[in-house]
Amino acid sequence: MSMMRKTITIPDVMEEWVKAQIASGRYGNDSEYFRDLIRRDQDRRQAEQDLFALIQEGLDSGVSTSTVKDIMKRVEDRLKHNGNLSTHE
């Protein structure tokens, strides 16, 4: 993977925070810290997209005619059958 050099400007208080993270031993240098922030941001945004897709899937599926009792019975049956709530077997 090729690397690109970037120059950023941050306030002193943020610089102190970055230095503290490096001093804690969690990161070896500024670049490691910022790469981790970017990876976490990418993961968070992907999780948001996945969640929105699931919400849309639920909305698109319409209103259920099942009662809460029916739903709970299906959940219990699924747990007994495969030990989890996954719809994939």
Concise description?
65% of the residues lie in helices and 0% in strands.
Describe, in plain words, how this protein is organized in 3D.
- The chain is built from three helices and no strands.
- With 89 residues, the protein is mostly helical.
- It is elongated, with a radius of gyration of 23 Å.
Features of this protein?
89 residues, mainly alpha, toxin-antitoxin system, ParD_sf, ParD, Ribbon_hlx_hlx
Termini distance? 37 Å
**pLDDT below 50 for ≥5 consecutive residues: which ranges?**
none
Query: C-alpha Rg, in Å?
Result: 23 Å
Write the element-wise H/E pattern from the N-terminal end onward.
HHH
Largest sheet: none
- How large is the count of helical segments? 3
Mean pLDDT, as a whole number?
92
Strand content: under 5%
E-strand count: 0
Helix content: 55-70%
Instruction: Report the principal-axis shape.
Output: elongated
Our count of domains comes out at 1
* Structural class assignment: mainly alpha
Present the secondary structure layout.
Blueprint: H1 12-23, H2 30-60, H3 68-82
